Amino acid sequence: MKILVPVRRVPNPDVKVRLMKDGSGIDTEGVNFLLNPFDEFAIEQAAQIVESSEGEVVLVSVGGADCEETLRAGLAVGGTRGWLVETDATLDSADVATLLAAVYKEESPDLVIAGKQSVDTDNNQAAQMLAAKLGLPQACFAYKVELGDGKATVEREIDGGLEVKEVDLPAVITADLRLNQPRYAALPQIMKAKRKEIKKSSPAELGVELASRTKVLGLIEPEARAAGQIVGSVDELVEKLKNEAKVL
Amino acid sequence: MSQLHKPVEEDIRELRDRLHPSRVLFGPETCERYARDESTRLYNLPCAVAIVENNEQVSTVLRWASEGGFGVVVRGAGTGVAGGAVPIAGEVVLSLEKLDRIIEIDEENLTATCQPGVITADLQEEVERRGLFYPPDPASADVSTIGGNVAVGAGGARAVKYGVTRDYVTGMTVVLADGEIVEMGGKNVKDATGYHLMQLMMGSEGTLGVITSVTVRLLPLPTRQTSLLVSFPDIEQAALSVSEIIRRRIIPAAAEFIDEVAIEAASKHLGRDLPSQEKAGAYVFILLDGESGEELQLQMEQISEIVEANGALDVLGAEDRGQQARLWESRKVVGDAMKGLSPQIGKADVVVPRGHVATLVKEVKKLALELDLSIACFGHAGDGNVHVNILRRTLGDEEWDNLLPLAFAGVMAIVKRLGGRPSGEHGIGVLKKDELVDFVGTRAHEIMKGVRKVFDPKGILNPGKVT
Ligand SMILES: Cc1cc2nc3c(=O)[nH]c(=O)nc-3n(C[C@H](O)[C@H](O)[C@H](O)COP(=O)(O)OP(=O)(O)OC[C@H]3O[C@@H](n4cnc5c(N)ncnc54)[C@H](O)[C@@H]3O)c2cc1C
């Protein structure tokens, strides 16, 4: 089985987000980047499937040259080979989906597993758009994935419970964080990952002309939360809830 | 110190008038969080809490205390583990939490100057955004304050290669007990101007003065880092491996370890199995940093050979920052995770010459067997600083009260024999006063008391702590 796993390089979510002075974007000066945490669950799932049957896990990343590092990180924990679609352009989810669809057509995998969203923009769109573009069934926010004969049974997380879905393969599945426990790389795996094949192509080479239809007009910081108050008595609390907060 | 008084209501009102009514808190609910630190064994409510917003207000509080002969306990974030920030006699707490501004990052002189209430991790992040590096990294960095770090002489994992807080401070502003403000040091790399009073402030734990600004020197930020997690059947092999790595002239940025009790605690805290947990009696965590990927890769391979020759079960690695954070997770949570195994813990933070770490842990484990107690060892294998946690678990009051002093004394005897010290980075506070005298000797202890008297003749600063 061949599984395609899109992986993304994101700014470290533990570093406080700061806006550019003109509000045009997020200031990433001096911020370190890492493999999108949700993608680790996707890679792990793909690796487990391939281990128990046979085949390969193809990691694909869209972005600048630095994404090679991110691909190598994924190759150390289960990826077989990588594909970097190299571009410095600002992309929206639809652009990413278009580029992934082009890679999909070249690779013809049996399954696509993606992280449910990237932790920087939290768009939660590219995988769904990819499924739509390719006319494939989709099962997002997977909690459990089981493969049958030409089908996948996916338990997916929904508000207040799980929904069980069966999809024909090929399909697009996105991984939620309870899907599995991503592995740690053994040292030899890291060394090996450095020598694994990474193919590079430009959007043009894939026959894609980028035409972003989304434009970010501006970013605004959320308002700071007002400080809490400590009240002296229950009466005072009730009074404040009534007259100040107006919730009673 | 006998002439100290307890402030009465009128005194507190006076303090409110001098400061500002909204800057002085009292009442049990409001003061609750100022009644403890992370020592887990001390608790006492302050009579009031003054939350100051500038140096003049610090002076105002201290002048008020000096005049009335009231004790004052300075507080940063309260993450100390020796009881230093706990108002053991119901003193007024002077909280510096609102003095939280980074005043300047000087990219020409490579220094940063900040107020004492700045959170350690915030300073680190701010300088890293400019490609600069403030190496001291206590495990509590997300919460602890720079002022607290300086006042205790905090260490951290990166001490192996980069040293501790003390090695980075070049200047500070101090408000003395009588309210006078004194500048010490500056931005200078060198300084041979008389006695270094600033050095006395480091480790003074709020007994000599209130530190109201700190200047630290910065380094260029290493651009690459790699982490390793090595599992071993037991802690002694883990310690020997770290010694061997250093003996072979590889100096990692950090070399930490945790034993089987700590692994159990971390696994319970995280709610999942940890790498090779069934077989592992210890983990070693190694952080390598530098400028070139090749250099780090070479070190990684050398370390891998060394640990395998010393009985390693597994060698895991990570280069991606997220994967590195995942690798380090069990080490990072250990301090908090211990509370999940045992709500009460006797904490020793001993340090021995780094070649003796293996002997130290071996003997502590022997002691644990003899006393039939659960004792965890974890911490900074690379610099000889080991956190020995004596766990109460489910012991009854009587058993615990009998065993804890025995265990402490046993650990301290081992440390003394190995030429170590009773505290590597947590300080003396209230809990380790006896050990201080025992290790430094009466003469040195007399000198310390004398120094304290010169700084604070009335003994209002953190009474009952340290000396
Ligand atoms: C989970 C955990 C992990 C930890 N890991 C480490 C570690 O790796 N390395 C390490 O060294 N420590 C560690 N510690 C201990 C603790 O975080 C440090 O001692 C830290 O420096 C305390 O800072 P604080 O701001 O919380 O100080 P507090 O606890 O508020 O105060 C500590 C002492 O300093 C005095 N003080 C505070 N601020 C000032 C000031 N501005 N002027 C004068 N006196 C002052 C107080 O009176 C008190 O005596 C850890 C603690 C926890 C809970």
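Residues B 37-38, 73-81, 84-85, 96, 116, 138-140, 144-145, 147-149, 151-152, 154-156, 205-206, 210-211, 335-336, 425-426, 462 surround flavin-adenine dinucleotide (CB under 6 Å).
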